[in-house]
Amino acid sequence: MQAHQWSQQEGTPVGVPHISNGPEQPETWSRRGVLAVLGFVPAAVLTGCTASANASSGSTPKAAGATAPTLTVTPTDGTRNAAFTSPVEVTAQTGTLSRVKVTRDDGSALPGTFNGARTRWTSTRNPYSGTEYTVTAVAQGSAAETMTFSTRAPADTFIGYFTPEAGLTSGVGMPVSVNFTHAVTDRAAVEKAITVTADPQVEVVGHWFSDTRLDFRPEEYWAAGTEITLGLRLKDVEGADGVHGTQSKDVTFHIGREQISTVDLAKKTMTVRRDGRTLATYPVSGGDAEHTTWSGIMVISERFKETRMESSTVGLGDEYDIDDVPHAQRLTTSGTFIHGNHWASASIFGSSNTSHGCIGLRDTKGADDTSTPGYAFYKSSMLGDVVVVENPGGNTGGETGEDTVDPANGLNGWNLSWTDWRAGSAL
């Protein structure tokens, strides 16, 4: 049975997006679309440090009669709303530079290097947007000089929702999926700013399913026990013209045991294997000849102890409306589930395919009968577990006229070959 509208009584959805903003610090999931320009209080101005002629808008001029500068800074000392798309430079007007330090308002330093003559220091990355900086520099034979500037906030921003949830333990089929709040036109810049690493080490590659969705996976399923780290360095990355990212953080996920279930709809059975050993075999009922179940590799992306399934939400009119479907686990975005079934005769399981495309197991109302296959399979499963459907039968082709599930329909990118998967990377 297919559905995508429900009233969750209990369960753990995975498609729920998670976001975070702010430079390099852990955060709770929040939706702060634009970083505010930080308040700015000009530091005391030292003798010998004056504004240059190319000062940015909002700079504070020095008093008339000030001595000639020994150091100049770009952005100019006292600048407010400086650009954040260019590096910071400190130049000695005479002599050489002994020391340069550029710090944010939280005390962290902006890295940089000297030229060969030590007359110029340039930051190795751009300053962050919406941030106040203090520059402390020493030219040979001179006292330390201090200058300040603040950068403007971006006019428009985007964030990336990621799946799975930070800290979650998932099955071996769980990809890392990032969905963006704004269409990305510079895919290479955005993909370069996101890293996914695994321990034990394995090659992980990104694949763009659309201009708002980027998934990552290895060639084969994750090894049981793998720790995965997602690094988001999207802050100030220009994903589209004038639209900059706001996130800079690392999150980790974990892979649990390996469980892969194979549904053979010709035999009308499902065999559950865990860590290479057969755990159970259950009789099932799949889609009928007019509503064939998708074939292919599918990943459990949401789980509900009970949920409502209504045919009108998947374009099937008023054929059904069941408000207490037990032990439902989502396999596709378009509405394919593997779930318990308490309304059909027990005799159909293992003998007939009668559903509207879902995979059903015998169950009872209330979702509390521990003796049923529906309860047992739900109890043994977790988000990210793999369900492989074989031999769906018929040629009517499921939900859109194709036999194999679309890799973008749910977290089902495993249906792409490794060559095709790599071809979807912008890098």
TrEMBL record:
InterPro entries cross-referenced by the UniProt entry: Big_10, LD-transpeptidase, LD_TPept_cat_dom, Transpep_catalytic_dom
Coiled-coil annotated residue ranges, if any: none
Keywords, alphabetical: Acyltransferase, Cell shape, Cell wall biogenesis/degradation, Lipoprotein, Peptidoglycan synthesis, Transferase
Active-site residues per Swiss-Prot or TrEMBL entry: H339 (proton donor/acceptor), C358 (nucleophile)
Pathway stated in the Swiss-Prot or TrEMBL entry: Cell wall biogenesis; peptidoglycan biosynthesis
The L,D-TPase catalytic domain, residue ranges: 259-390
Highest taxon listed in the record's lineage: Bacteria
Disordered as annotated region, ranges: 1-27, 53-81
SUPFAM superfamilies, per database record: L,D-transpeptidase catalytic domain-like (SSF141523)
KW Acyltransferase (keyword) present: yes
Keyword Cell wall biogenesis/degradation annotated: yes
Compositionally biased region (Polar residues): 1-11, 69-81
A Pfam family of this chain: Big_10
PROSITE patterns from the UniProt entry: LD_TPASE
Listed name of the protein: Lipoprotein-anchoring transpeptidase ErfK/SrfK
Organism: Streptomyces umbrinus
